[in-house]
Amino acid sequence: MTITLYFLQASRSIRTAWLLEELGISYDVKCYDRVNQKAPAEFKEDSGNPLGKAPYLVDDGTESIRQKVKVELGESGAITDYLLETYDQGRLLPRDPVVRSKVRQWIHAAEGTFMVHGLAILYARWMISEPAKSDGTLGKLEESMSVNVQKDLDWLEDELEKGNGKYLAGEHVTAADTMMAFSIQFIFARSLGVKLGQEGKWKRVGEWLKSCEERPAYRAAVHKTGHTLHPS
User: How many CA atoms lie within 13 A of 9 on its CB side?
Assistant: First the structure.
């Protein structure tokens, strides 16, 4: 088995690296810096991913029913599902159906709720005209879109407050955390719907994020990949 992770800085790639570390799986990583905020041409060429998006995972030693097959996957959520189904033993995706459903909820919410609402603001900043930036139009647009982001964070805060441990599905880390942490880090780092310094409003979210970032597996992933949300 040889797993290769194609890793782009300031991207969702850290989700996959952290999950691999939590699973205790050996993997090779090929890291790429952004060029003009985008993946460089060699990322697409080296990975074979036709869209040139990160993360991208290649597993050339998976046992299928009849033979070894090579698996090539994009989309951090799909990669998470694949790694859990192939290598997890019920720890990061617990077997209990209630807990398992809760974990899957967060796996999907990481992209389908949190990143969707955060990226809407980021894209507005990128795409809106210069006059709209200076005449207050962008500010009003961001203010209106911030409502969704803050409602998402309120929901996360409430769920953590009602929970039975320091992670999203209880006292033990799961794939819910490996998927969700990046979404919140990204929203806070880019001030998407949240003003600088306002993060403290969501105290339990901050505590949970700190618990995630202090995990040895997360730190190992950061060390191995050089992950940063603020590339030079």
Answer: 18
